[in-house]
Amino acid sequence: MRNLAKLLGISSGNPEADKSVPVETVEMTDESDAIYEVQHINPEDINPNPFQPRKTFNDESLQELASSIREFGIIQPLLVRRTPQGMELVAGERRLRASKLAGLQEVPVIVKEMDDKEMAELAMIENLQREDLHFLEEAEGFNQLLSNFGMTQDELARRVGKNQSTIANKLRLLKLPPLIRRVLKSENLTERHARALLKLEDPQLQIQALDTIHQKGLNVRETEGLVEDILEDISREMSKKKATKQNVVKVIKDVRIFLNTINRVVADMKKVGIHIKVNQEQDDEYIMLNLKIPKRR
């Protein structure tokens, strides 16, 4: 995976910046080799990134970062862009949230012009470089890049440094209904739990399986066993229904043989001049035949 700072074209202008000294100037090594000055703005004036894939943040981790920021300040500036609605965050969501928790009145930012596609890509890569990005948020982020910006899976895989098969497998998780995905997050279940549930195409069965997983605290192996048991039960039930249907069809075919025989007899009687009248009715259980044969021709 490409380094985020390299992708952004950012390098610190102060060799001591990675220690405990806030950065004040930053070089952007883009095509123009321009040097961007760090600005300081109120964190409340920064609008959130609409393409942020991470939806959940660890409160304890944010409090720890806020404590560090109170003591040392923000080491690396946030990246923002200008929009008609004001400044919009590009990268640095955790730093922005922690800064608000720390009560900072201003934060260092770098303003860079970029379009929606570049912004969404940078937000995704920034989060992928943090190992705690939830697998469903990762899948949703991939889907956003594909659907909003016309990327192919191969192109996306190259951009984020992953195999195309990895991208495809992540996207399959989005076939799970939103309710199931919310429970997976709230119960802190793993990606392998989610993959097991994908085998149950019926959402009701998925919910039942999730309830069992929650009640019994099933691990991945036990969950996979549960899903296999459910699938076997479904297969047996389908086999029974198929056998019942075949028996019903066989009986119906036998009845038709008798009816055809009766119809042939009726036809023969009419041929010899017997004016026989036939009335046939049927319901769910019976076929009723009413034959009227005159005593005389």
UniProtKB/TrEMBL annotation:
<dbReference type="GO" id="GO:0005694">
    <property type="term" value="C:chromosome"/>
</dbReference>
<keyword id="KW-0132">Cell division</keyword>
<dbReference type="GO" id="GO:0009295">
    <property type="term" value="C:nucleoid"/>
</dbReference>
<dbReference type="GO" id="GO:0045881">
    <property type="term" value="P:positive regulation of sporulation resulting in formation of a cellular spore"/>
</dbReference>
<dbReference type="InterPro" id="IPR050336">
    <property type="entry name" value="Chromosome_partition/occlusion"/>
</dbReference>
<dbReference type="GO" id="GO:0007059">
    <property type="term" value="P:chromosome segregation"/>
</dbReference>
<dbReference type="InterPro" id="IPR036086">
    <property type="entry name" value="ParB/Sulfiredoxin_sf"/>
</dbReference>
<keyword id="KW-0963">Cytoplasm</keyword>
<dbReference type="InterPro" id="IPR004437">
    <property type="entry name" value="ParB/RepB/Spo0J"/>
</dbReference>
<comment type="similarity">
    <text>Belongs to the ParB family.</text>
</comment>
<keyword id="KW-0717">Septation</keyword>
<dbReference type="InterPro" id="IPR003115">
    <property type="entry name" value="ParB_N"/>
</dbReference>
<dbReference type="Pfam" id="PF17762">
    <property type="entry name" value="HTH_ParB"/>
</dbReference>
<keyword id="KW-0238">DNA-binding</keyword>
<dbReference type="GO" id="GO:0000917">
    <property type="term" value="P:division septum assembly"/>
</dbReference>
<protein>
    <submittedName>
        <fullName>Parb/sulfiredoxin</fullName>
    </submittedName>
</protein>
<dbReference type="Pfam" id="PF02195">
    <property type="entry name" value="ParB_N"/>
</dbReference>
<dbReference type="GO" id="GO:0003677">
    <property type="term" value="F:DNA binding"/>
</dbReference>
<dbReference type="InterPro" id="IPR041468">
    <property type="entry name" value="HTH_ParB/Spo0J"/>
</dbReference>
<feature type="domain" description="ParB-like N-terminal">
    <location>
        <begin position="39"/>
        <end position="128"/>
    </location>
</feature>
<dbReference type="InterPro" id="IPR023705">
    <property type="entry name" value="Nucleoid_occlusion_protein"/>
</dbReference>
<keyword id="KW-0131">Cell cycle</keyword>
